[in-house]
Amino acid sequence: MEKKLAVIRPAISDSEQEKIVLAAHDAGYTPVFLDPKNVSESDYMDAEIIYGEGAAAKKAAAESDVLRWLCASFAGVDAFCRPGAFRNESTLLTNSAGAYGVSLAEHAIMMALMMMRRMPVFEEGIRNRRWLPPMPQDSIKNSVITLLGTGDVGSCLARRLRGFEPAKIIGVCRSGRCREPAFDEIFATDRLKEVLGETDLLIMSLPATVQTKHILNEEMLSAMHPGAYVVNVGRGNTIDEKALSAALNEKRLAGAALDVMETEPLPEDSPLWDTPNLILTPHVAGNLTVDYTRNRNTEMFCEDLLRYAKGQPLLHLVDRTAGY
Amino acid sequence: MEKKLAVIRPAISDSEQEKIVLAAHDAGYTPVFLDPKNVSESDYMDAEIIYGEGAAAKKAAAESDVLRWLCASFAGVDAFCRPGAFRNESTLLTNSAGAYGVSLAEHAIMMALMMMRRMPVFEEGIRNRRWLPPMPQDSIKNSVITLLGTGDVGSCLARRLRGFEPAKIIGVCRSGRCREPAFDEIFATDRLKEVLGETDLLIMSLPATVQTKHILNEEMLSAMHPGAYVVNVGRGNTIDEKALSAALNEKRLAGAALDVMETEPLPEDSPLWDTPNLILTPHVAGNLTVDYTRNRNTEMFCEDLLRYAKGQPLLHLVDRTAGY
Predict the structure, then answer these.
(1) How many C-beta atoms surround the C-beta of residue A156 within 10 A?
(2) For the domain B101-280, what is the CATH code?
(3) A39, A136, A174, B52: which has the highest count of C-beta atoms within 10 A?
(4) pTM here?
């Protein structure tokens, strides 16, 4: 039987394709390259390995009995960790967490600065050709920053924020442990409320799990001071949007910026559209739109492909019980 | 005769006022605190020292014969370096360059990321409640960054941009020398054109002088590649706006972001309002609107006040021939 590898990934460049062809050859596989938006079942249902995304990846997981390894070209694999997501429970699942941190960190820092520097107000002025006077602005310098999530994204953020001379950078994660030296302090999630009391800027980059659902709820928001800012580039359901919207409407927070929401695209009747001091972006903080992200994504798959062929443990294996 | 110090500065906090009162007492001066927007000539024309800004500072420089030291609470003192700006040519002139770098660097990085991440397009979508799909984005990571101006602003920028893992950070300045270790390379201004050829992101923070006027002109712009970005947080007349507008209209540049323009407020008929891929802000990158900037500004004046009283050389003296 031919050993088939189906690559169902958007925005793949010639040089990435070449890398995959070479790695596949070394590993003994014949790759086919498919467009995730225009692919028919017969092209991938016989593949032993799938690297990619979209409805095809989901369908293959749920229905294929020859699929032995699915490498998701994205990071948020919560949907693939639910019971029944795979026809064959022993199919290996890896993801591409580690490729998106750079892009997500840049997006989060941009949004934090836009809020602190009152950019939406100045932009509205410029659109109306009005030259607004200076107004009070905040700064990352001397701010207490809390990064909720200390994985690839949190670590990329901590390293980038260091140079802005914050008062301190606190990491909060499940284990309360993290090796990244750019953090000043690390706490376990059960200390979150206490940490939020001294936080000026909270940036969230958590996966969607049972434990993280609505982790930023009314109780946590009420621990924050009215000059504080919230940014979320992780998963939408980690924030209770009603509670966030209320806090912003009642000026209990200075601002929030969300790239992810509980339902995407954001429904027409969502109160978030009209919430003051809220910046929204349509889930574009981390996509295969930045050269570095695409190349790193490809490299990570190729690394694991060679390991798979040799029977070695995969580097980017998802812990399906944890959900990430 | 009473030794009078007039403080004509906006947004002065109680703690700053207290610092100035203490330093003035030690130096043997009686400070008066005046509102730059509502001050009468008789309040400051008899002052030996003025710390501040606005029309009053200009008038005192031009007309007072008792003024011995003017400390400008801003950085761009070009208007005070012109012949005739001072009635008494021996009046000392200091400025507050060094207080604004943090704020200007944050603003410049915010604007660079907004361009690279296509933020204006996504913002327009959100305003119209449209959920736009991802589109190609650029990243600071692996970009060649040129900082034209390596003083306080350029150095603050270099230290902050380091963590974003650019390909390299090049500094360009008059002397071709700079002690800040966050730069990878430093060139003198006569190498600018050559440096621009490899630049992905140019950030300008130059003072307004005879040498810097229209330093970014058609010749220099034509050396840049069509994927490059320009940010200016220095002085407006360092860019030939007609040439910049043409380059953007003809897609010879990917984007530009200006906090400063040749004429401010921007005239109603300026072509910049309608230039594509151009982000404008109304000269708000560095004002006395950020706590850190205000406090540092006050500290710098107090340092020099004590030195002035002891007859020591002032730390923040302006080189009136150079213009900064």
Answers:
(1) 28
(2) 3.40.50.720
(3) B52
(4) 0.97
